[in-house]
Specification:
heterodimer, A: 337 residues, mainly alpha, MetI-like fold, 2 domains, 14 helices, 77% helix, 0% strand, B: 539 residues, alpha+beta, 12-stranded mixed sheet, 4-stranded antiparallel sheet
């Protein structure tokens, strides 16, 4: 297993190098003159030139790149120009917010989509099957920010069930002591049930928004893969042997249908991280998506590079985990790999 | 890992997981609410020091509330019952009294004022702070210069509690310029301790920390998320604020900001779209205060250095082709003062902004265009700043449509906010929609920035005229000498010239709108268009 992990890690190195080069070049070709932006409205051309020199933007690109790589090697992602804070600390502080939201959203979505997919496959052509198709189509065709605003309008504005969309905690709560950065976990560690409830309440609507968006691929994939398995011979044998439908479906069929579902989950998780950017904007969520957008608007290179790099590394790690999961679920994959 | 066990647990998790059904809770800290103001806006500060590089408008708000200045402005009640700062009335802040002579002004500082860390505020701190403002370059230095405050030698700490400003020339704007945000008083000792050789003025430190003695202390700042202030209970430079805490949250979605207000969760918000303000104003749940932005004008600018807009007839034709009233109704929803359609025989006022006499008159516009040698019109681009797309986009579409009717075909060019300033500096855009407002509410100040031949970035039209420069400078001289008759003549002179040659077409003076809970009192309009928490109270 360790050898396999190392081998997979080795193949990830070229992609990470590629990402470093591409993010560096991309941020340089972005429209927008950083120096002019920071020089302010009343700047003279000399003032802009001074700022450009101060930021090191007047030096040739290869030289800037070398300096960037040197910093990277020491784990330094640079400082944000606009706020002057270290990108590394900002990302570490903000990543748990995004991860917590994405994970809860994914769990919510799995809790609905997988059972729905299974039932739709078992009772093919029934009302549940049609409902599954409808829910999936609706979920995937509504843009996240729209679902988000709609949910806020209904659950916060009209019904008053949800708390104010003001980020991770109500204004009058203070964050639990930082252990994992996940408020749900940290508040439990601190045995602070009040804060746990407040944090969970803030999470429900944004997580629901993310969940609705990711219902479709999970439900459809579960259904398709279950259909394939249910028509195979070992299921027929199992049924003929008089096993209960529950054992047949959950123990035998679903287990064998899991592989494509896991692949889809990996993909869904990746694009949920992307969709985060919009959801964070709607719910004033202090995650890395909104951080990157703000930096992009201000042509602030370091945070954008840091964000893309973090995302890339997370994708690589995620793919690795999924590859390893394959082996755990289905030994045949492990032998071939 | 055991495969069977793993599979079993996955299947169970998938089948049995139920949504996390946490009950929604309301804040238990209702009591704290009454003394806390919750402000929601679209974006927050990027730097909390007004002397910093590229500090944005929200950053001004932090500076204004956390630092003291020598004096502040009194208040006046406007015709609609709302409160505004009074341009002409100064009140003590850090200085208890002052004496303005012909060549210098002497300020007596109060003896009991302390910085947030407990060190007494002395004239040395004031001098160091002002030296810093005129030395760091960029915006603060520019702003000081606008009041003829240019050299460190002008600032003298006579003794611990006496501070003197020497004038390098007679300038009526010197004293007003000492009351804006830039000349704030920093804790010199604290900042110097955190300064480095590369950064002698400690800008890196004050970028993230406040080092002042103002009415509020910034206790927490998470960029892009929130700013939290607590009242400085030892504040001596004015009446103690009623609010104990101010929490300022960034809520990027305008719809949510409105929902937060209407649900009663947020107390006060700026920057909603005008449509929302108009609707909230019509309702009764939320109090909306709208004040005209002092010395501020939304305009269409034309680049006079290049054909076809180098021809005054073309510019006048465009001025007759703007759909003024439609812009007022469909873009501003009535939340602005018209800057057009003054009766032609009315004559000029000694005031700025004031309406010009152009009106939408397509026949006249066509005739002028033909006279200028463009009977069939021409093609050009109309650019605007995407950062202010709420106003700019519909405005430009209306202008495009109207110009099309006299044969001028325009392509709309949307420029991202990060690029806009750089593009303006190049001075190559032929036709733009833009907005400018001056902190100091004096006509000659506006014209100095926007029409003077020094060609500052705000002179977006690159308009240069010796006569205009002479008029503007004569007005400044007359103001400094206190010669009222001459001043009035010069102001009318440059306003008239600006209207006749129309390098820029004033459209409207927008209102600054603020929506707040009915329980919030004491909001006051300030020239810097940010909130002053000191006067605000919650009933």
């Amino acid at each position: 297993m360790l050898r396999q992990v190392l081998k997979r890690l080795a193949t990830a190195i070229p992609s990470v190098i590629g990402v470093v080069v591409v993010t560096f070049l991309l941020t340089r070709v972005l429209p927008g003159d950083t120096a002019a932006y920071f020089a302010g409205p009343a700047a003279t051309p000399q003032a802009i030139a001074e700022i450009r020199a101060k930021l090191g933007l007047d030096r040739p690109l290869p030289e800037q790149f070398a300096a960037y790589v040197k910093d990277l090697a020491t784990g330094n992602l640079g400082n944000s120009l606009s706020t002057g804070r270290a990108v590394t600390t900002e990302i570490i502080a903000r990543l748990p917010a995004s991860a917590e939201l994405t994970l809860v959203g994914l769990l919510l979505s799995m809790a609905v989509a997988i059972p729905l997919g299974i039932v739709a496959a078992v009772k093919q052509g029934s009302i549940v099957d049609h409902a599954c198709r409808m829910v999936a189509t609706a979920g995937v065709s509504l843009p996240v920010f729209f679902t988000g605003l709609l949910l806020v309008y209904v659950f916060y504005f009209l019904l008053g069930w949800a708390p104010a969309p003001l980020g991770r905690l109500d204004v009058f709560y203070s964050a639990p002591p930082d252990v994992t950065g996940f408020y749900l976990i940290d508040s439990l560690i601190a045995r602070d049930l009040d804060t746990f409830r407040a944090a969970a309440a803030q999470l429900v609507v944004p997580a629901l928004t993310m969940g609705i968006f990711s219902l479709a691929p999970i439900a459809r994939m579960t259904r398709a893969s279950m259909l394939a398995v249910l028509s195979s011979e070992f299921i027929r044998t199992a049924r003929a042997s008089g096993l209960t439908p529950r054992t047949v479906i959950i123990t035998y069929a679903f287990r064998n249908a899991l592989l494509p579902v896991i692949t889809t989950l990996g993909m869904v998780f990746s694009f949920l991280l992307g969709a985060n950017v919009l959801v964070e904007k709607v719910f004033a969520w202090p995650g890395i998506g909104s951080y990157a957008i703000e930096a992009l608007i201000a042509s602030d290179y370091a945070p954008v590079q840091g964000f893309v790099l973090t995302m890339a590394i997370m994708y690589v790690a995620l793919n690795l985990v999924i590859d390893l999961l394959y082996g755990v679920i289905d030994p045949r994959v492990r032998i071939e790999g | 890992m055991d495969r069977r066990q793993f599979l079993k647990s996955t299947a169970i998790a998938a089948g049995a997981a139920t949504p996390i059904g946490a009950p929604f809770v309301r804040s238990a800290a209702a009591q704290a609410r009454a003394e806390t103001l919750l402000v929601v806006t679209e974006s927050g500060p990027n730097n909390v020091d007004i002397h910093g590089v590229g500090t944005n408008r929200p950053g001004y708000e932090v500076s204004w509330n956390c630092y003291d200045r020598l004096f502040t402005h009194g208040k006046k009640t406007l015709a609609d019952g709302s409160e505004s700062y009074d341009r002409d009335k100064y009140e003590p802040e850090l200085a208890e009294s002052w004496d303005i002579g012909p060549n210098s002004a002497t300020f007596k500082l109060r003896k009991d004022a302390k910085f947030h860390d407990g060190t007494p505020i002395t004239a040395k701190d004031v001098k160091w702070s002002f030296d810093r403002a005129v030395s760091v370059g960029g915006f603060p230095t520019f702003q000081m210069k606008a009041g003829s405050l240019e050299k460190p030698e002008q600032f003298v700490a006579v003794d611990d509690h006496t501070f003197r400003v020497d004038f390098i020339r007679k300038d009526a704007l010197t004293i007003p310029d000492l009351g804006v945000i830039v000349p704030c008083v920093l804790n010199a000792g604290l900042v110097k301790k955190n300064a480095t050789e590369k950064d002698p003025w400690g800008l890196d430190y004050t970028k993230q920390n406040t080092a002042g003695g103002g009415a509020f202390k910034m206790v927490k700042w998470t960029p892009g998320t929130e700013v939290v202030y607590e009242r400085n209970d030892d504040w001596k430079s004015g009446p103690l604020p009623k609010l104990k805490r101010v929490i300022w949250r960034m809520v990027p979605s305008a719809g949510n900001r409105r929902a937060l207000l209407e649900r009663g969760d947020a107390d006060i918000s700026f920057d909603l779209p005008n449509k929302d303000f108009a609707e909230l104003k019509a309702g009764s749940k939320i109090k909306v205060v709208a004040n005209p932005v002092g010395n501020g004008i939304g305009y269409i600018g034309m680049n006079v250095k290049k054909p076809p807009f180098d021809n005054v007839k073309v510019r006048q034709a465009v001025a007759y082709a703007i759909p003024y009233q439609k812009i007022m109704d469909a873009v501003l929803f009535g939340l602005g003062k018209p800057m057009f359609g003054a009766p032609a025989d009315k004559g000029l006022d000694v005031a700025w902004p004031q309406p010009h006499s152009y009106n939408t008159d397509l026949a006249k516009a066509k005739a002028l265009l033909a006279e200028a040698g463009y009977p069939n019109g021409f093609e050009t681009t109309l650019s605007f700043d995407l950062g202010f797309a709420v106003i700019n986009e519909p405005l430009c579409v209306l202008v495009q449509e109207s110009l099309g009717q006299i044969g001028i075909k325009t392509t709309i060019n949307k420029i991202p906010g990060a690029n806009w300033r750089a593009e303006l500096l190049k001075k190559e855009l032929p036709l733009i929609s833009n907005f400018f407002s001056g902190w100091l509410d004096y006509p000659e100040y506006f014209f100095f920035w926007c029409y003077h031949g020094q060609n500052a970035v705000f002179n977006t039209m690159s308009y240069q005229s010796k006569e205009m420069d002479a008029l503007i400078e004569a007005a400044r001289t007359a103001a400094a000498a206190g010669d009222k008759a001459a001043y009035e003549k010069e102001v009318k002179g440059f306003v008239g010239k600006a209207f006749a040659e129309v390098p820029r077409i004033p459209l409207f003076q927008p209102y600054l709108c603020v929506a707040m809970q009915p329980s919030v009192t004491g909001y006051r309009y300030w020239f810097h268009r940010q909130l002053d928490y000191r006067t605000i109270a919650k009933a």
